[in-house]
Design goal:
Blueprint: H1 4-30, H2 33-53, H3 57-78, H4 83-104, H5 112-117, H6 125-154, H7 156-161, H8 166-188, H9 193-205, H10 211-236, H11 240-255, H12 258-261, H13 266-271
Helix pairs in contact: 1-6, 1-8, 1-9, 1-10, 2-3, 2-4, 2-8, 2-9, 3-4, 3-8, 6-8, 9-10, 9-11, 10-11
Length: 275
């Protein structure tokens, strides 16, 4: 008989996987893996500010991640540095500031490993409520902007010519990313959240014949990784967050096998993968 905390972990993890999947698809299509790392590193600064200002951790992480995301969008328009240089600058600056701020709060006991690698087995009912309410909000907004955001991903110039306002879609996208990272941090931690965004989407890309199908498959692979990782963690006494990521990697490796290749769409096997 499984304990209540394990069921809570399963429910929370599956919720995060479903919400992260469609955004992870855009991360893969846009080749923005480093952007996910930047926001996840910024999350640690949010944790430090939450303890310093006595704020809700999820709220503080969202505010910091949103601030970093908006700063990136603005700097991309005005700065002469390349996008990867800006991402590296913001990621390491936010991470360093967070670690320095935590060092100054010596009187506060902080489970740094829990924030870095997650503690899904400690999720509460309130955490589950936050994940699902926040996740529903993210999915609703994403559904509204899906067409414009996908058009901006494929061809920003054409999308702007057709009046779809790609800059607004991009801003909404980065804010949704900040929301997902804020509600997901407790599941796999700030250092592994990017893996949960990217790996299920990369696996789904091997089998999908369209963008919507890829988002659905990514959610299924992500949920399967959560279930497999948690049961593996229970059986072998391994860390739960990293175990989920390892399970996701196993699914991706299986997707590369010749047998899995037979399940891929014929058009994709002939023409190659496209967004």
């Amino acid at each position: 008989m499984l304990d209540d905390f394990f069921f809570r972990a399963l429910i929370a993890g599956v919720g995060v996987a479903i919400v992260a999947a469609p955004l992870g698809c855009f991360v893969v299509w846009r080749r923005l893996a480093y952007f996910g790392d930047t926001l996840s590193h910024a999350a640690l600064l949010g944790v430090a500010l939450a303890f310093l200002l006595e704020l809700n951790i999820t709220l503080a992480v969202f505010l910091v991640c949103a601030g970093v995301a908006v700063a990136l969008v603005l700097l991309q328009r005005r700065a002469t540095l390349s996008s990867d240089s800006l991402l590296g600058l913001l990621a390491h600056a936010a991470l360093a500031l967070g670690l320095v701020a935590l060092a100054f709060m010596s009187s506060v006991r902080i489970d740094l490993m829990g924030f870095l690698f997650g503690d899904i087995l400690a999720v509460s009912k309130f955490d589950i409520l936050t994940i699902y309410l926040g996740g529903i909000g993210v999915l609703i907004v994403l559904a509204v902007v899906w067409h414009g955001l996908f058009a901006a991903t494929v061809n920003p110039e054409l999308a702007e010519a057709e009046g779809m306002r790609p800059h607004r879609s991009n801003l909404i996208f980065v804010l949704l990313m900040a929301t997902v990272i804020a509600i997901s941090m407790k599941i796999v931690g700030v250092l592994l959240i990017t893996a949960l965004l990217i790996i299920p989407a990369a696996t789904a890309r091997r089998f999908a014949s369209g963008p919507e199908q890829m988002a659905v498959l990514a959610a299924l692979f992500g949920a399967a990784a959560v279930v497999g990782g948690l049961f593996g963690s229970l059986n072998w006494d391994t860390p739960s967050g990293p175990s989920i990521v390892v399970a996701a990697v196993i699914f991706f490796v299986i997707s590369l096998s010749p047998l899995a290749g037979l399940l891929r769409p014929k058009t994709e096997r002939i023409k190659g993968e496209t967004p």
